[in-house]
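Title: [Solved] DDE Tnp4 domain-containing protein 3D structure

Original question kept below for reference.
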Amino acid sequence: QRTCSLMWVHETLISREQLGEFWLVKELRCHSDRFRVYFRLSMEQFNSLLSRVGPSITKIRTNYREPIPPTQRLAICLRLAFYYRVGISTVAEIVPDVSKAIWDSLVHEYLPVPTTSHWHKIALGFKERWNFPNCMRAMDGKHVVVQAPHNSGSQYFNCKGTYSIVLLAVVDARYLFRVVDVGAFGQSSDRGTLSASTFGDALREGRLDFPEDSPLPGADHLGPMPHVFVGDEAIPLRRNVLRPYPRRNLSQPKRIFNYRLSRARRVVENAFGILAAQWRIYHWVIGVGPVNVDAIVKATVALHNFQRWNCVTEARISQEEEKIPSLQPVRRVGANNSTQEAIAVREAFKGYFSSAAGGVPWQNTTA
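Solution (posted by the thread starter after getting help):
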């Protein structure tokens, strides 16, 4: 029996139950605060997640070796470390396998397809917290640095001189990811990534169940205004998408508009920063193939929402805003052609933010 085991499991790995990192995990269950620091999840959240993904990551027992139980497989994936006395090839199989199971088990509940009622609730959050009415979400794209894929040419090579995939995200006022597109080539701009995404198609074709146009608070004279997303200079200006004015010789009203838009858009930058601080894999070059990188990134996004969904408070949001590290910004591109209707919408918001109804006391000194 011993000889057979050595053929399938290296002798240094047989003692993982007694000497591996998982022994520490058992001890941490007696210390909830340290358990959270170690896994970035509370014990309740870990157990809930395990109940969701356990059936799909449980392996069949054979006569040759004991399978790694689902609790350990989940622990290995969350830590993304090699301290559990399991083989490198085993870890390489566990991480993408469990990552996919995490995404599949969480996506429908914690990244649901947006409905009109969702848009209304999110718009209320932007109005109350960020003083930007009729705003549904902020969008941006970020680079996730990866090892150069074989035979990929320059597709993954970005303007920062690294190889990456792009995570395009739409974020609400509570730093929750609501729509994500993962896996665009690093050489892509925000505009190109948005244009090629399923979300971009739905946005262009008006299939996102936006709320009906409604007046801005205290500005009935402007008539019904569309509900909008906010983005940076790389995002094309559309009726439902606002981006800043080009930063050249701006009038005071345009500077105020840019400030107010930037203030609302910062939620997506902060969300990326929180994601990178929470899941340390974003601090390294991810050395797996593009398909597995996509699975890992999607899992961290789902876990981000899973952790925050019902326990986000104003105090926590304020604390997280103090200083948040971020992922690399996607390359900026020049101005985009815009329709007259989209230009008129931006002009209306510009006028509103400089009026008594839509202004805030500090904007004149900040803009």
